[in-house]
Predict the 3D structure of the following.
Amino acid sequence: MDSTETWSRRRLLSCTAKLASAAAGIAIGSGAIQSWSPRTSFAKTLKWPWPYKKIEPGKAARIGYEKYYEGACCYGVVNAIILPLREAVGEPYHSLPLDAFRFGHAGVVGWGTICGTLLGCGLVTGFIAGKPGESILNEVIHWYIETALPAYRPSSPRTNIKHTSRSNSPLCHISAGRWMKRESVPFDSPQRAERCARLVADVAAKTANLLNEWSEKKFISGHEIPVEIYRLPAQSNCTDCHGTKVPEIPK
Amino acid sequence: MDSTETWSRRRLLSCTAKLASAAAGIAIGSGAIQSWSPRTSFAKTLKWPWPYKKIEPGKAARIGYEKYYEGACCYGVVNAIILPLREAVGEPYHSLPLDAFRFGHAGVVGWGTICGTLLGCGLVTGFIAGKPGESILNEVIHWYIETALPAYRPSSPRTNIKHTSRSNSPLCHISAGRWMKRESVPFDSPQRAERCARLVADVAAKTANLLNEWSEKKFISGHEIPVEIYRLPAQSNCTDCHGTKVPEIPK
């Protein structure tokens, strides 16, 4: 990225922040912004959300790391949270077929869309926390895109890796791509697999942490979900894909 | 997009196709490409995949359209497939809390990543078809990005809309954005909601169709998943985001 692009990006982010502030102001001032989607209350399902008992984040991380090597990223995070709950709670967790979530690998059957670790987080928070689970997922995504990862250090690593990277995106394609560039390895390398295994551990531990806080009524959501801020399903890094020519949004 | 960009894109796609052919050639020739992820066999879970009985695609479409207005896109597709199976099969479908899948809205809690309709397809094919479900999802994604949608015409539309669009992407941000540009409406408009409700109907019907074919052993997978073709979690529309300066992929 050259300096012109950097400057343009800063300008755009500044504009985006102002737009977001303006939108927030309108929302607070009038409550009149039309909803992005239907706002009916959740259906009253007797057995949902499912019961939760606190999980030790380090345990979730260790399970996640190992399970990545069995069924990839989404499966890894789901196992990291559900297996401890099978022990601590029992049903309905035993009846949930965790293999059904393998499809999230490599950004959903290899398309590079949402990182499978985040999809796994969305699934478990959906089962466990219901509507507040969306806020937990949103916080995990913010932490994921802003943090240099992976941070987890396995006691017996399959492969040694050297670098961390900040994804600035929840997309597998961008997140994995940025790390691969730093490490100078291709996607089909043992190093990239190890990075993703450790990322599973990180996301599993973070998810367990926030679920624990939520279960103690201590969870505080620090962010609105992006579609409420931008009135568009998006994030604030427009120039990463659009360059300096950001398309106009219809009013 | 100006003519230079168009030309560059064509050139790039041509290169990508050649690369893909070359990769396929290597794969067929040697079988030696290192796997993108672990290739262990699925765990043997007694109760999984779940039993399936054929679903009338028109019925799935009608349910999906209505359920969108209750809980958005991912929830809509999941309901469109699971509710008929609750009637036809019973358990374990009754025990699955469908509200848990609302988080997929607007590209996963509003981040604009994978279209929630495709996430819904991935979930139901994961429960029903297991590993072949990944091929079904991959075919649905190909159809989704290549087809002018929405095609569904509700008998009693909530809102009239004028246009269809070809997304060329499985991402909510791009798919919804392209349609919004054609229709000249913002995301928080009744028209955009109607477009997504009809899209739920389309994806639900397509998913039911392919699941029916699969249940009759007539399903044929026409595509490898992208990470196997490109050795990267990606699709072939690089210039949509990267412009003409596509980053080098580490070897």
